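My convention is simple: the sequence line spells out the residues, with the fold written below as integer tokens. I include a record here:
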Amino acid sequence: MRIVIAEDLALLRDGLARLLRDNGFDVIAEVDNADALVHAVLGEQPDLAIVDIRLPPSFRDEGLRAAL
């Protein structure tokens, strides 16, 4: 399964990616903002996106809007 992770906290993003990779998942992109998420999803066509709802710059609902 090909996965994209969108999380602004580097430690959490890296830890989640490592956990997934160690269990046989293919993490194809790790991003820290909504624009990068949209770009990664359009370019990579993942099977799954794990998205933080509150992403920079305003930390309100950028992740949710990007996911929609």
